[in-house]
Amino acid sequence: MKRSVLTTILLSLAFVLVAQERYVNPVLHMDYSDPDVCRVGDDYYMTASSFNCFPGLPILHSRDLVHWTLVGSALTDYPGPDWDGDREVFHKSVQHGNGVWAPAIRFHEGWFYIFCGDPDRGIFMVKTQDPCGRWEDPVWVVKAKGFIDPCPLWDEDGRAWLSHAAAGSRAGLKSIIFVAPMSPDGTHLLGPSCIVFDGHRTQPTIEGTKFYRRNGLYYIFAPAGGVSTGWQTVLRANDPFGPYEERIVMAAAEGTINGPHQGGWVETPSGESWFLHFQDKGAYGRIVHLQPMTWREDGWPLIGEDPDGDGVGQPVASWPAPYRVIPGQVRNDDQRQARPDRVSQGPYGLPMEWQYPAVPSPYWHYALPGGGIRLYSVVQASGDDLWNCPNLLLHKFTAERFSVSARLCFHPNPQLDVRGETAGFLVSGDDMAGFLLTDGESGATLCSFDCLEASGRQMGKGPELAFFPYDDSREVTLWVRLEVRAWPTDTPVPEAMCYFFYSLDGEHYKRLDFPFKARPESWIGAKFGFFCNRPAPKNDAGWLDILDLTINNNPR
After folding, report:
1. pLDDT, tens digit, 9 for 90 and up, residues 133-168
2. CA angle 553–555–556, rounded 5-degree value
3. How far apart are CA 21 and CA 424, in angstroms?
4. Strand ranges (DSSP E) for 389-494?
């Protein structure tokens, strides 16, 4: 009896000393579509699709798979050497939904590699020895229209392979998986791509390949069934070229997340398996979930939990975390950082969480020494057409419920013979809305605007909200605030309802009468941001200063 009591006390003490926390999905409520992950030592690195947005190929770091920090970007220009004609296209116009699709990140012989597809050009590779630093210029591995979702695999014998899928919109064929032999340095293929799996009957729209080898077998992880309605499939074979067996290893069940879609498998240093994937959450974008993963005795993986024992997992809402908390151990619950000295500033001199919808020009912005960002009105753009405006400075939605506030100082160029420079604050997507400041002869006017079906319709302006007569400084100051709330809250994919506020003194705010329902655009979630444009060419520019910017997640 005494021994039993002592054992109980010791077990209880052990539980107190080493307690395993639970995490809650999503682990990253931001638009990081098509995530893939690799581990080097105790560090995990994730990348994701960036489409037409720059900087592209984001690099995120974690020590526990739950807390992630944006630490860099692998792509700062597009396309790259010898593609000057295409570079001009990407600098001057917005290629909505095009560009960088579904990357894979791997570490091999001291180098980090990212392979990604452009549906109109082929497959590219970038590499580095410092994932938080500068990545080498892209290498054009395969020139082909319609090749997407590539993933490299280096075999134990030194041979290399590349898997990929096909975009039906470009290739005229989808639901198929390819494998090709690749040079060990990852720069080119050694033979043609061959179809190794046809999913038309059982795995429609199979894509998003992730190529692995385990216990002598080749595995291709690939989602099927569509982004918001599909499931996770795994293919298995004794040879890279098949024939492949197939198995569904995770699917949505009633009450779980929709999809679940594309992602990657990673092992912890202790040998535990985990799977990161995205959920399509409408205007919030494609947010990141973490699932436990186990290998069955029959050699097939199971992702998530399997309450009915049918061998097909379902997503978990919460689960014991991949780390354990020891009393006295210090953990940063906000976000862990790999290189704190590099986290704050991106490749263009701005905080790296900001992106443009096109390759930026060095003339577009200035990081103010005292904090803040200055946008110059160097782009000649119609004030009514923000859809095709390449110099929108944009930020992903940061949570299901969040707020943004900023002080804006608009200083239009006094040299312009024709008035009409514009600046403002907006939520962007297939629909757009926000505030617009317009330069006039004696002052600037403030109005609200919206643009529904933004790709095909010009801006609709609301009534004048305020007029700012110019003094000698010709500078206009305005405070703006945005509140985003999910509605209804009891659905896996709620609407993102946006409420706009403005103030002329920084203390007393007025809310616009209408709530705006944000919408995603092509493959990308809605974003908030700022702009500053001119109506005509001139040899100097005005500007918009963005000051005192504050983002507050989950405000009361």
Report:
1. 999 999 999 999 999 999 999 999 999 999 999 999
2. 160
3. 44
4. 393-396, 402-411, 422-428, 432-439, 443-451, 460-469, 476-487
DSSP assignment letter at 430: S
**Domain 361-553, CATH number (from 2.60.120.200, 3.50.50.60, 1.10.1040.50, 1.10.357.10):** 2.60.120.200
Give CA–CA dist 381/76, Å, rounded. 23
Please, are residues 420 and 535 in contact by the beta-carbon 8 Å criterion?
Answer: yes
Quote the DSSP letter at residue 86: H
CA separation for the pair 412, 278 (Å, rounded):
42
Q: What is the largest CA-CA distance in the chain?
A: 95
Q: Distance (Å, rounded) from C-alpha 375 to C-alpha 168? A: 39
**Judging by DSSP bridges, how do beta strands 101-108 and 56-62 pair with one another?**
unpaired
- Provide the token pair at 463: 């009534």
Instruction: Answer whether 68's CB lies under 8 Å from 61's CB.
Output: yes
pLDDT digits (tens, 9 = 90+) for 525-551: 999 999 999 998 888 999 999 999 999
> Is the separation of the CB atoms in 260 and 286 below 8 Å?
no
